[in-house]
Design a protein that fits this description.
The protein has ten helices and 44 strands. It has about 650 residues and is mainly beta. The longest helix has 15 residues, at about 5-15. The chain is globular and about 80 Å long. Residues about 1-10 and about 15-30 have low confidence and may be disordered. Bound molecules: (dicuprio-$l^{3}-sulfanyl)-sulfanyl-copper and dinuclear copper ion. Dinuclear copper ion binds near residues 573, 603, 640, 641 and 646. (dicuprio-$l^{3}-sulfanyl)-sulfanyl-copper binds near residues 410, 451 and 517.
């Protein structure tokens, strides 16, 4: 029994002891304060808590000042932001600004560096003010999370972002001009050589126009491999490549590992190639897309494709693309049928098996990578799809199927050979044994679970212990906040401790930000984040000392023509200079350094009515650029309660009107 189990059983013994009727000899001091155990019993009674509730509380309660063992990085859905949550306490620690402005972090609100990052993600130059973030992917080394970076996708405006976990800052956004929607991203290869982004809704590649009548001929999907250069901390578009796919709806993807390293996989739906058009006499898209019993899993040899891309690709919208025919001829792409309207595709920790959940099926289907390879080697194909892609025989490619229940979607793994599959329709998690293909038990979730994530469960070394169910509906779980309800993250204990070896639901965390999809859970001690920016003057985006760093005592205002350079510092509790005078129409450049090196000594810097709020963490340098186009008197002040004289950390920005 470990310490936690002992604690749980002690507390329960305490609780149970006070339920017993008092023996006649027990002294009863009427009116005196109840004893510790009586207190607990009363508390349980008053708050209507069961033993299971108390166990759950003991398993999650984290006293003030204690840290969490794991960190959950969850997509923030429509908010375009990334959530960081402690596990098991389920305390929200941060929203990382990624695809949308975030005022507290000063992201995209006057700060030039982050505005430029956001601009990288504009679609064809059009500002985008939301993002549909789905699947975060932590960087990996040899198939294990290394805690250095995290990548996220935006389904709506196909983009991938790079977030540095030294300071949890988004440093880069790459926009795919090749495709019009993604879904199978972000997923990394085992050493983060590539970040995978796969299209979902087919369209003519490169943003071209073609009518839906030409769907079969002109519409296409693609799997993009964005090259990540770890030393440069950047995705290098010129070294990236894509493979052209038929116009099916490609869905979730995963990268092979260990046995299957060098390969990538994605599901597809709508191999019927339905295009909707209910007013034009066609069946609705969703029924047209659900006619076939099988769709095709796409099996991609990315390591070979990276070589082929060097000589046999053509450039479309700035991306090297391997044409579909070349991919077929070179043996880069194979299909295998998969049942029915599949969604999740998850590679087992040993890289041997691929688990597919068919939304309209009751099974998880387990494909064997070795069997797939043997079929490819023997050129044993049962047919070709309309585009000539060889199709492997289903029955010979699978190791088996396991009947789980209604609406299997996604699968996560623990370190003991178990898999956990979300059952969307049944609204449960099914635990099953991967080797034996046997259902172990099910636990209910509230409600309609989508993704689920286990601690380091999609690496080569899963930790088990905790699972988080990411539920789509919340119905009756929380206080009413109007017709738009939060999502519900449910923490589940996988250890079986103090619960007869069974899974136990521990905690509900409502998420009122957007619809999160996937998440990853990493051991917290793998993240080696900075406490401060050092040396003073560091730029958060470039991670280099800014050439405009301002030293204490060297603050000044310089004017060249109508350009005004303000060299400013912040330190408790003043900005220097604290008065800035410019003329209407001047271009203003504020070079602002926070001289603090004390942990958490963050200042904010706002210029009222100019839509400017920068966040200046200790040591950080920020560039602010704008045109003083409105004359008047504008307070500038610190927006973080940084000291006793925080309210006095202010000044004036004076814009003198043009002479009429
Ligand atoms: S997808 S659950 Cu991107 Cu499953 Cu949402
Ligand atoms: Cu600085 Cu408040």
């Amino acid at each position: 029994m470990n310490l936690r189990a002992i604690l749980v059983s002690c507390a329960l013994a305490l609780v149970l002891a006070c339920d017993k009727p008092q023996s006649p000899g027990t002294p009863q001091s009427s009116g005196a304060a109840p004893t510790g155990s009586a207190n607990l019993a009363k508390l349980m009674k008053d708050r209507n808590l069961s033993e299971a509730d108390v166990t759950a509380a003991l398993k999650t309660y984290t006293p003030s000042g204690r840290r969490d063992e794991y960190l959950l990085f969850a997509s923030g859905g429509h908010s375009g932001q990334l959530l960081v949550i402690g596990v098991p306490s389920m305390r929200i620690l941060k929203y990382v600004a990624v695809f949308t402005p975030e005022p507290w972090q000063g992201y995209g609100v006057g700060d030039k560096g982050s505005q430029e990052v956001l601009k990288e993600g504009y679609r064809h130059g059009k500002p985008i003010t939301w993002g549909d973030m789905h699947h975060p992917a932590l960087s990996e080394t040899k198939g294990e999370y290394d805690g250095e970076f995290i990548f996220v996708n935006d389904k709506a405006n196909p983009r991938i972002a790079v977030i540095n976990l030294k300071d949890f800052v988004t440093e880069q956004i790459v926009e795919s001009k090749l495709i019009e929607a993604d879904h199978g991203g972000a997923f990394v290869t085992p050493n983060t050589e590539y970040v995978i982004e796969t299209s979902q809704y087919a369209a003519p590649l490169g943003g071209a126009y073609a009518d839906l009548k030409e769907y079969n001929e002109k519409y296409r999907g693609a799997m993009t491999f964005w090259r990540f250069d770890r030393a440069k901390r950047r995705i290098i578009p010129e070294e990236s490549f894509a493979i052209e796919f038929p116009p099916y709806m490609q869905d979730l993807a995963d990268s092979g590992k260990l046995t299957s390293d060098g390969w990538a996989f994605c599901n597809s739906i709508n191999t019927e190639r339905a295009t909707g058009g209910v007013l034009e006499g066609n069946p609705p898209l969703e029924s047209g897309a659900s006619q076939n019993d099988m769709d095709y899993m796409h099996i991609v040899n990315w390591r070979k494709a990276a070589e082929v891309a060097k000589t046999k690709s053509k450039v479309i919208a700035g991306m090297r693309v391997i044409p579909l025919q070349v991919a077929i001829d070179e043996g880069l792409l194979y299909f295998v049928p998969e049942p029915k309207s599949p969604h999740g595709l998850d590679v087992t920790p040993d890289g041997e098996d691929l688990v597919v959940g068919g939304k309209l099926d009751t099974h998880a289907t387990v494909f064997s990578f070795k069997k797939i390879q043997a079929l490819i080697a023997a050129k044993k194909f049962e047919a070709k799809d309309p585009y000539g892609v060889p199709i492997l025989p289903f029955a010979e490619a699978i190791r088996g199927q396991v009947e789980l229940g209604l609406g299997p979607l996604h699968t996560a793994f623990d370190g003991d050979g178990n898999a956990y599959t979300s059952l969307f329709i049944e609204t449960k998690v099914a635990k099953w044994n991967v080797k034996e293909l046997k259902l172990v038990e099910k636990i209910s979730t509230q409600y309609n679970i989508g993704h689920l994530v286990a601690a380091e469960g999609d690496t080569v070394a899963p930790k088990g212990k905790y699972l988080v169910a990411m539920n789509k509906w919340a119905l009756d779980r929380f206080n009413s906040v109007g017709p738009l309800l939060p999502q519900n993250f449910q923490l589940i204990d996988l250890t079986g401790e103090a619960n007869g070896g069974k899974m136990q639901l521990l905690y509900d965390l409502p998420i009122g930000l957007g619809e999160p999809h996937n998440a990853q859970i990493i051991k917290a001690d793998k993240i080696k984040a900075w406490d401060i920016y050092k040396p003073v003057g560091l730029d958060a985006i470039t991670k280099e000392k800014s050439p405009f760093t301002v030293e204490g005592g060297k603050e000044r205002v310089e004017r060249k023509g109508n350009v005004v350079d303000v060299y400013m510092t912040a330190i408790r509790s003043h900005f220097t200079p604290d008065v800035v005078r410019v003329k209407e129409g001047d271009k203003v450049r504020i070079h602002l350094t926070n001289l603090e090196q004390a942990h958490d000594a963050t200042h904010g810097f706002a210029v009222n009515s100019y839509n400017i709020n920068a966040s200046l963490e200790p040591g950080k340098h920020t560039e602010i650029e704008f045109t003083a186009d409105r004359p008047g008197v504008f307070p500038m002040y610190c927006t973080e309660f940084c000291s006793a004289l925080h309210l006095e950390m202010a000044g004036y920005f004076l814009v003198e009107p043009k002479k009429k």
